[in-house]
Write a structure and sequence with these properties.
The chain has helices spanning 2-23, 157-188, 194-219, 228-268, 273-300, 306-322, 324-339, 381-385, 413-425, 465-482, 510-522, 524-528; strands at residues 27-31, 36-38, 45-53, 59-65, 72-76, 79-83, 88-96, 105-117, 120-133, 347-349, 355-361, 365-370, 375-380, 390-391, 399-407, 440-446, 451-459. It is α+β, with helices and mostly antiparallel strands.
């Protein structure tokens, strides 16, 4: 019974073994060489493979390869006949590049091992190889464009180097003494100053960049004779200088051209927002240009920026938590500059009643001159943003003076009005010729102790408000006094009642009581009962 059960399992295992043997390649192409080579023009490179038959049947094998224009491929042998089981044969493929190349060139070689049985193809095994000619072996051209026209012995890279040096020197001289002067003369005839600024900024960096590029390009003709580390060092210096020049140009063009244009446009507009945005954009833009330039320089120097980016994120998070007040003040400063509740030079009244003059609005703090003690104080911007502030220097609004004048009952209202108007007419800086801003005098109320008259006048300049207040109050008081009009003080009538005694039945001698109080005040001992007998 056990044997009968094992028979199906053995049959399945046998079928799997036969299937695996049938799936194996009948011919093995073994890699026995290096298949990525670098060579010079015209120098032959050889690749080797070993072909082995692992099948009981003998096969014929044909070897072929792809062809590339200008390249020569030789195969030895091209055909292997009757390769029997466990027998192997060596195949050699030789590749010869063209004698000259114009730049770095790479040939991708593919070799096909085609297996035949009885004239029929049963299997194809492709293999790949690469041949590269570096740029140092490329044909050297004058300025990288023209072929070398010099006769021997300068019909080589030395002649190209000599011509490059001469031609780059000529180009630099033409740019310095011809192109730049002509450009400056053309810019001088235009009305705008932008072209003059651009020429002044670009002139020196352009000459330096032309010299550096000409030097690197000329030395490129001699790269076969210069060690690789020297070439890499010179290239790194050139790239670093290029990064510095680019950052310098970006900085100067941004600051001297873009910011100049922005300020010119801001002067012609009535809005004050652009006057705020331009200085803010200047500060932020300079930071961005600096960071971009640093990243560009580090990139040219092959410095991995991943660590800097990750570190910058962590540092930013730490600073955000550690400097919350500073960040709050910074954004509050932006809000002050954008909303413009007050400007530098304005006189404002703070929430605590202090009168101050705004001296400087910064991105973190604002400096104020306090009139009460003639001191310069610095206030964080977030406090000013969240505080109620009265702006006393808004040039769009006129200054005004309001007051309520009380006179005694029995006064003639018409006479009081006439005196008040005469006082207004005698006070300077009050607007009288504008009907919309004419002085107002009216009988306002009959109060408890006085007849109240309200006056309202507009002042030609807000700065004259204190002068008008002083002069007008003086005139009103003087003229009311001369007119015999009394200005009363608040009065109250007080009634005294003795406890337990009805008031009307016992007359109250006020004079005697007051006299007794005065005597006690002059002689305290009598009040305390310790006076002498």
């Amino acid at each position: 019974m056990r044997v009968a059960r094992l028979i199906p399992i053995l049959l399945v295992a046998a079928l799997l073994i036969v299937a695996s043997v049938g799936a194996q390649d009948p011919i093995q192409v073994l890699n026995v060489d290096t298949y990525d080579r670098t060579t010079a023009p015209g120098e032959t490179v050889t690749f080797n493979w070993t072909v082995r038959n692992v099948d009981p049947i003998s096969y014929d094998i044909e070897v072929s390869a792809t062809e590339t224009t200008g390249w020569t491929v030789d195969i030895d042998p091209t055909r292997i006949d009757g390769l029997s089981q466990n027998r192997a044969a060596a195949v050699r493929v030789s590749v010869t590049p063209p004698p000259t190349v114009e730049a770095e060139t790479t040939m991708a070689l593919r070799v096909f091992f085609t297996v035949f049985q009885g004239g029929a193809v049963v299997f194809i095994a492709p293999r790949d190889a690469t041949v590269t000619i570096p740029s140092i072996f490329a044909e050297k051209k004058v300025l990288g464009i023209f072929a070398n026209p010099l006769p021997p012995p300068l019909d080589n890279e030395w002649g190209v180097f000599l011509l490059d040096v001469v031609l780059w020197g000529v180009l630099a001289a033409v740019a310095l003494f011809v192109v730049i002067p002509l450009t400056r003369r053309a810019a001088a005839r235009t009305k705008t100053q932008i072209d003059d600024i651009i020429i002044r900024i670009v002139r020196t960096p352009f000459i330096i960049l032309l010299f550096l590029y000409g030097t690197i390009q000329s030395l490129g003709a001699l790269d076969r004779h210069i060690d690789s580390w020297i070439r890499e060092t010179l290239l790194s210096i050139y790239q670093a200088a290029l990064a510095i020049i680019i950052v310098y140009l970006a900085y100067r063009l941004f600051k001297d051209v873009l910011i100049y244009l922005g300020r010119s446009i801001a002067k012609r507009t009535s809005s004050h927002i652009d006057d705020v945005i331009i200085p803010l954009a200047e500060k932020i833009g300079l930071v961005i240009v600096g960071l971009a330039g640093l990243g560009l320089l580090l990139g040219y120097l092959n410095v991995d920026l991943t660590l800097f980016v990750a570190g910058g994120v962590v540092i930013s998070m730490v600073l955000a938590f550690a400097a919350q007040d500073t960040i709050s003040n910074f954004f509050s400063g932006l809000f002050l500059l954008a909303d413009r509740p007050f400007r530098e030079g304005d006189i404002i009244i703070l929430g605590d009643g202090d009168w101050v003059e705004v001296r400087r609005i910064g991105l973190r703090t604002t400096r104020l001159f306090r009139f009460s003690d003639a001191t310069l104080v610095t206030v964080p911007n977030n406090k000013l943003v969240n505080e109620k502030i009265a702006n006393f220097s808004n040039p769009k609004d006129k200054g005004r003076f309001m007051s309520t004048i009380g006179v005694a009952y029995g006064s003639d209202p018409a006479l009081v009005k006439r005196v008040l108007r005469e006082s207004i007419d005698a006070t300077p800086h009050i607007i009288r010729d504008d009907p919309a801003l004419a002085p107002i005098v009216r009988f306002d109320a009959m109060a408890d102790s006085s007849l109240n008259f309200f006056i309202l006048v507009w002042i030609d300049d807000r700065a004259n408000r204190f002068t008008v207040t002083d002069v007008l109050n003086t005139e009103i008081y003087t003229r009311l006094t001369k007119a015999g009009i009394e200005i009363p003080f608040p009065q109250r009538t007080v009634h005294l009642r003795l406890e337990g005694v009805e008031g009307p039945k016992i007359p109250l001698d006020i004079e005697r009581i007051v006299k007794g109080m005065e005597d006690e005040a002059e002689n305290p001992s009598k009040r305390d009962g310790r006076g002498g007998g």
